[in-house]
Specification:
Helix content is about 30%, strand content about 20%. It is an alpha/beta fold. It has a seven-stranded mixed sheet, covered by helices on one side. It has a four-stranded mixed sheet with strand order 3-6-5-4, with helices on one face. Strand 10 (about 285), helix 9 (about 300-315) and strand 11 form a beta-alpha-beta unit. The two termini are about 40 Å apart. Bound molecules: S-adenosylmethionine. The site of S-adenosylmethionine has 21 residues, from loops. It holds the Pfam family RlmL_1st.
Length: about 375
């Protein structure tokens, strides 16, 4: 999904890698991806790479980089090392050596060492080690990109904004299709959908670490912000619907929609997902129901799912239903056969996005005993 999104934003040399997507382009594209990507968590700028066998090689590779061309020693740094198949014993020690190399290089070039701030650094230096290569990146995002600025109220077990946006894209949702989340919680799916409908760039209301780079040119960045603002539209009311049985969830989604500037676009109802009728004859239902591991009581959920499944069969003919859950047994509990299952991770938790195509006489999941 991210590779497709990057292609839409004008990236070149797009290569999906483990846990990310590599791409190429001018620095202005880096600004654009930070402002416009709904799916990425952060954008790292690759500045150097080298081969290594021991910690000293990593130190030397880091020391060879002209850090003074990227930022100043007045800026506070943090080094974050991640590794895959790395033969070195301690990543903490590698982190320390890279920090030393950056400071030593600044001392040599500018007569002053940057200080370290692990909580709110100006510059995050990300180092990735595989079995033989070390690669150095500067984080151009700062706060992760899922922090758009609209979430003031979290509710129970919210999913991340970029995960919700990726799921909407996986579900092929477009703003001219009716969308309904019957267990909306703080409203992540519908707020993200409403922002897409209004063509609001997800990062328009926030700042980024690239603004602290010496190479930062405010003119194209400001021109980009103006272009993105001019692209915004009002959107069509009546197409996005959300509900939850909890009054607290409705207060939370209401507050979030107000901050996002999308209250007009989302119709809210309070009620039980097993009783509320479909808001239209056809549409896309996307939801992230309660799950025993994180919330809710698994006994009451056992009764909930078959009832919710029956309700879908009865009242949601001609709808496509996408359910995001960590519960691999959910289709069996709903007594519905999925037409697609996409593995996804919610943080460290392995999840599935199950798709069910509701048609009249929707195929009931066959029981093992054949009845
Ligand atoms: C995992 S949370 C959804 C989180 C949401 N996706 C978000 O990002 O904030 C599940 C939600 O289902 C709601 N819920 C649980 N049982 C329900 C029911 N029977 N009818 C309607 N809502 C229900 C809970 O109140 C909770 O807000």
């Amino acid at each position: 999904m991210l590779a497709q999104e990057l292609a839409d934003l004008g990236a070149a040399d797009i290569k999906p890698t483990a846990g990310g997507v590599a791409f190429a382009g001018p620095l202005t594209l880096c600004y654009r991806v930070n402002l416009e990507s709904r799916i990425a968590s952060r954008v790292l700028l690759r500045i150097a790479e080298g081969s290594y066998r021991d910690e000293q090689d990593v130190y030397d590779a880091a020391h060879a980089i002209r850090w003074q061309d990227w930022f100043t020693p007045q800026q506070r740094i943090k080094v974050k090392v991640s590794a895959h198949h790395c033969p070195l014993k301690s990543l903490d020690f590698v982190t320390l050596r890279v920090k030393d190399a950056v400071c030593d290089r600044f001392q040599y070039a500018r007569g002053r060492r940057p200080s370290v701030d692990t909580h709110a650094p100006d510059m995050l230096i990300a180092v990735y080690l595989d079995s033989t290569q070390c690669t150095f990146y500067l984080d151009t995002s700062g706060e992760p990109l899922f922090k758009r600025g609209w979430r003031k109220s979290a509710g129970e077990a919210p999913i991340r904004e970029n995960l919700a946006a990726g799921i909407l894209r996986l579900a092929n949702w477009t703003p001219d299709t009716l969308l309904y989340d019957p267990m909306c919680g703080s409203g992540t799916f519908v707020v993200e959908a409403a922002l897409m409908a209004r063509r609001v760039a997800p990062g328009i209301g926030r700042r980024f670490a690239f603004e602290k780079l010496l190479s930062y040119d405010p003119r194209p960045a400001e021109a980009l912000r103006v272009e993105l603002k001019e692209r915004e539209i009002d959107g069509t009311p009546g197409l996005i619907h959300a509900a939850d049985h909890s009054a607290t969830a409705l207060t939370s989604i209401g507050a979030n929609l107000t901050i996002a500037g999308c209250s007009e676009l989302v119709t809210l109802r309070q009620g039980d997902a097993r009783q509320l009728l479909a808001p239209a004859e056809t549409g896309l239902l996307v939801t992230n129901p309660p799950y025993g591991q994180r919330m809710g009581d698994s006994e009451s959920l056992k009764a909930f799912y078959p009832q919710f499944g029956d309700h879908l069969k009865k009242h949601f003919c001609n709808w496509t239903v996408q359910i995001f859950t960590a519960d691999m047994k959910l289709p069996g509990q709903l007594r519905l056969a999925p037409s697609r299952r996409v593995p996804l991770f919610n943080g460290a938790i392995e999840c599935r996005l199950f798709e069910f195509r509701m048609v009249t006489g929707s195929p009931r999941k066959k029981r093992a005993d054949g009845r």
